[in-house]
Amino acid sequence: MQRGTRTATYETSPNIALVKYWGVRDPARALPYNSSLSVTLERLRTRTRVEFVPGLDRDEFRLNGRPAAPAATAAVAGMLDRVRDAARVTDRARVVSRNNFQTASGLASSASGFAALAGAASAAAGLRLSPQRLSQLARFGSGSACRSIFGGFVEWRAGRRADGRDCYARPLYPPRHWPDLVDLVALVAAAPEKSVRSAVAMQASVETSPEYARRLAEVPGRLAGIHRAIARRDSAALFPLIMEECDSFRLVCETTRPSLDYLTATSREILTAVRDLNTDTGRPVAAYTHDAGAHVHVFTLGRHVRAVRARLRSIRGIERTLLLHAGTGGRRI
Ligand code: PMV
């Protein structure tokens, strides 16, 4: 049994993918088919405390002030087992986690949740992992979690190696790289809770969507274009690519058998409103994207926020909107 720190707290934010991760080539190693790229969001935070407790007979997990559901506790225990193996710790742990935002249904609480858990558990167990290694650990909880270790604009490199050593997340640009870029998150009322976990749903897409192979062939070019547009702070190049990528992801979901439909009628109206705004303005002033959930992220520039808000105002079923910039990544508290 190792000595030293037994308790640690780690905090981080969810991220929204501009290039989506959807499907793994090696489930045991959690290695994705394609690289992905995201923006870590400010203000929304998950804070997780892990304490290894001698004599505790099983792992305990409290989420937002209540004992978590058995499936969530089992997923947490899975991550703790990895950390225990690496650190040669045998004690069970008490895990307490809190989100300052709505859990599940499209705000990527699993990304910040597993990133925060990986950060807190590894530190509590006495492992001193580099951020890159921490990203490699976090992806075993939820793939997108590896990107939430870092702030700003982040790439998760799929890598090519069978052992996964070249598969990790890395920061591309810091949060302040493009202060004018904002994400207006439209929180959709009655967004359904996910019925199928993303990890299961994406493998159904790999196996059954006739669109999957085409998407995979397109993604590297799109990712390079999105990276270049971010580097140059070129919204006219970026916004159409963000929507193209989101449409490709959604097409793969819809053509999966059984079909995966994450949107509500309100979400779809938002997509239409953004397309119409761009058409009416004669240039791309905004871009929509969504993950495996009904909330819609509308990227725009500070000077267009009023126009975007005006379009969204007429849509029924938007509960509220959040105006977010790129934010900082993980840190130990
Ligand atoms: O990280 P997971 O297993 O919850 O899957 C995330 C999948 C998407 O959010 C749809 C895309 C992404 O890259 O975040």
- Which structural class do the helices and strands define? alpha+beta
Residues in helices, as a percent range? 25-40%
The CATH topology annotation of the largest domain reads as Ribosomal Protein S5, domain 2
Largest sheet: 6 strands, mixed
Order of strands, main sheet, comes to 8-7-9-6-1-16
What percentage of the residues does DSSP assign to strands (E)? Answer: 15-25%
What is bound: which ligands?
Answer: (3R)-3-hydroxy-3-methyl-5-(phosphonooxy)pentanoic acid
Radius of gyration: 19 Å
CATH secondary-structure class of the largest domain: Alpha Beta
Taking the alpha carbons of the first and last residues, their distance comes to: 24 Å
Number of domains: 2
Elements, N to C (H/E): EEEEEEEEHEHHEEEHHHHEEHEE
Count, helices? 8
Q: What is the mean predicted local confidence, pLDDT? A: 95
* Number of beta-strand segments: 16
As residue ranges, the low-confidence spans are: none
Q: What general form does the structure show? A: globular
Short structural summary:
With 333 residues, the protein is an alpha+beta fold. 36% of the residues lie in helices and 24% in strands.
